[in-house]
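>> Question from a student workshop board

For tomorrow's exercise we were told to take the sequence and the ligand below, predict the bound structure, and bring the output to class. My setup keeps failing. Could a helper post the expected result so I can at least see what it should look like? The ligand is 2-acetamido-2-deoxy-beta-D-glucopyranose.
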Amino acid sequence: MHFSTLFTTAVLASTSLAADFAVKVSNMNGDLAFTPNNTKAAQGDTVTFHYYPADHSVAQGTFAKPCEPKANGFWSGFVPVASGVSPTTFVVTVNDTKPIWFYCTKANHCQKGMAGAINAPYVDTGNTTDAYIAASEKAASNVTPQNVAIGFGGKLANSTSASGSPTAASGTATGTGAAQSATGTGAASAVGLSKGLGLAALLGFLVV
Ligand SMILES: *[C@@H]1O[C@H](CO)[C@@H](O)[C@H](O)[C@H]1NC(C)=O
Ligand SMILES: *[C@@H]1O[C@H](CO)[C@@H](O)[C@H](O)[C@H]1NC(C)=O
Ligand SMILES: *[C@@H]1O[C@H](CO)[C@@H](O)[C@H](O)[C@H]1NC(C)=O
Ligand SMILES: *[C@@H]1O[C@H](CO)[C@@H](O)[C@H](O)[C@H]1NC(C)=O
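>> Workshop helper replied:
Here is what the output should look like for this input. Compare the format with yours to find the bug.
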């Protein structure tokens, strides 16, 4: 496990330095929130949403109209799960570093603060994640996308059917990025590891 994690990270580092960042959609406590509520990601990185009970969704929105879908924005559909984390994930690729806003369309979850961002500014420019969440709490209605198919703009996948070692694949990079919420953390750790690429790859092959 440990060595194959290193191996996976080394492969990422040797290819494009793309990192994957995990975002929890609710959590084991049932909080109506995304964790982290803002993710710093570079172009080409991915954000993987992990769904907790009982039934949540992720729709791309706009800062100007909280709790309403962005035209042709990504949409995971609802991902119900009775207990624990769902094996179904939704992976969104980050194509540029402009802020990306999203929310849960279930019931009044958005108005309860279940909204978040990718690459929202951390310094207060007015359009921060906290400002988006605060505005969401005042939105008149919570709108589910009607004109796009489930899974649009991303990739719905079952982590258990992914190739290789699914938990290890997203473990290292995502944990670091989420915990620190700092610029380029995932990429930085990947660069650090790439120095040990030869050794890590060797160890990875030995284990695999
Ligand atoms: C903040 O969001 C508003 C509404 O979408 C937009 O008009 C404005 O340009 C944004 N400001 C910044 C600094 O991005
Ligand atoms: C967003 O997450 C940060 C970091 O965990 C937290 O300090 C902040 O209170 C959250 N914002 C809202 C509106 O919940
Ligand atoms: C990035 O581009 C891909 C391919 O066009 C698209 O599916 C995806 O939704 C885009 N990501 C965002 C956050 O818009
Ligand atoms: C994941 O697996 C479950 C159970 O087999 C299935 O119902 C669901 O449709 C799958 N989801 C995806 C996105 O493949």
